[in-house]
Amino acid sequence: MHRILVIGSGGREHALAWRLARDPSVERVLVAPGNDGIAGAATCIPADERDAPAIAAIARRERVTLVVVGPEGPLAAGLANALRAEGIAVFGPDRAAAALETSKWAAKQIMTEAGIPTARGRAAGTVAEAIAALDAFPAPWVVKADGLAAGKVVLVSSVRAEAEAFIRACLEHGRFGVAGGRVVIEEHLAGEEASVMAVTDGERFALLPPARDYKRARDGDHGANTGGMGAYAPSEAVTQALEDEVARAIVAPTLAAMRRRGTPFRGTLYAGLMLTAAGAKVIEFNVRFGDPETEAVMPLVEGAFADLLAGAAAGRLDPGAVARGRGAAVSVAIVAEGYPESPGGGGVIVGLEALAADEDLAVFHAGTARENGRWVVRGGRAAHIVARGATREAARRRAYQAIASLGGSGWRVRGDIAVPAAGPGAGGASRGGAAAATATGGGSWR
């Protein structure tokens, strides 16, 4: 039997803990540090997610058989290295392999080496170099800070002055700290985005249902980039033929390149794709489960998910451990009213307990806290409302019906998650007023 410790405190970790707890082979799921909402579905243990000695001590004390690392930060800090050195099984790449996400330029070099289809790019460490590099690319310009900054380090603009201002903010004014000490300028790719996540032991891999996420803050893909306003799965744009091509031309050669470098990759290889007229091209790699894609994908994963992750961690992945469920799932993020520019909290969400009792819904908590019998927004993305249906449209309608039943104040959603490109949006929603409620914060699909 598995005893699993999930590292992290967001909606992704709630979804992972919820799904793992459904496996018959799982005896117990713990989350460190977790949050008040996750505590309704798993045992939460206060801990700094980057404190390797503390995490190792928890794993030994609780007789944990597998540690699943959710966020990229602990992986970049070497948590997987430290746990493996202690003889603790861990799902997630070592620090060196995590460079696929911690440095966009390092990832670009690996992609070039492996022949992975991706956008042309240049790196620059000074303002003069970066501004000169803009001349090599037509508008719109794509400028990225090289390192990690919670998914908010990219500018896409057709205004040259905006691109130059972003470059100066990174390289002169330290807007993103160390993460912005180098910038990468890339050609702009046009098409539809898709996310494909591969669970791998470094050689063998299993692809999870492809997803589509929404990064912009406002309806119609307007506004600033965020950590993600919602997602749906599966993405119909990723046909079986295209998925086979992604496996053959992107995932397999990337894993082979990592092995050649002496940094084999074990964990989740997330490929953020642009489906262009010339085929799928990689926008970015992540080295963990995507957020918010995981919230939409987990309800569609059937079979022994815990065995899949444990096999990957042990170097003997069984791709047949899981299967794909029928239908579709749509996840919509409830965020603080001013997110992402002003992610502070203070809002109240009323009615989550009724949603958690619905067979076709799940509530995955992120930036919420339980105070005085109410769910309060503590910043950024507060919670994810996830609905499953026979079709994407059915799941979308159910998700927004659920959101319409909520009350409170100080929060909003995008209204067009999972709306077909040619169709009208549902309209963004904000909530005013105040009310109190008692909520369980747990998932559903019991």
Morphology call = globular
- Total helical segments: 13
CATH class of the largest domain: Alpha Beta
The biggest sheet amounts to: 7 strands, antiparallel
Task: Report the C-alpha radius of gyration, rounded.
Answer: 21 Å
- The number of domains: 4
**Would you identify the regions where 5 or more consecutive residues have pLDDT less than 50?**
422-426, 432-446
Structural class: alpha+beta
Straight-line N-to-C gap: 21 Å
**CATH domain topology of the largest domain:** D-amino Acid Aminotransferase, Chain A, domain 1
Secondary structure: number of strands: 28
CATH superfamily of the largest domain: ATP-grasp fold, B domain
What is the CATH architecture assignment of the largest domain? 2-Layer Sandwich
Give a structural overview:
The protein has 446 residues and is α+β, with helices and mostly antiparallel strands. It folds into four domains: 2-92, Rossmann fold, CATH 3.40.50; 122-186, ATP-grasp fold, A domain (Dna Ligase, domain 1, 2-Layer Sandwich), CATH 3.30.1490.20; 190-324, D-amino Acid Aminotransferase, Chain A, domain 1 (2-Layer Sandwich), CATH 3.30.470; 328-431, Phosphoribosylglycinamide synthetase, C-terminal domain (Glycinamide Ribonucleotide Synthetase, Chain A, domain 4, Alpha-Beta Complex). The chain has 13 helices and 28 strands. Helix 7 runs antiparallel to helix 8 (160-171). It is globular, with a radius of gyration of 21 Å. It starts with a strand and ends in a 15-residue tail after the last strand. The model is unreliable at 422-426 and 432-446 (pLDDT under 50).
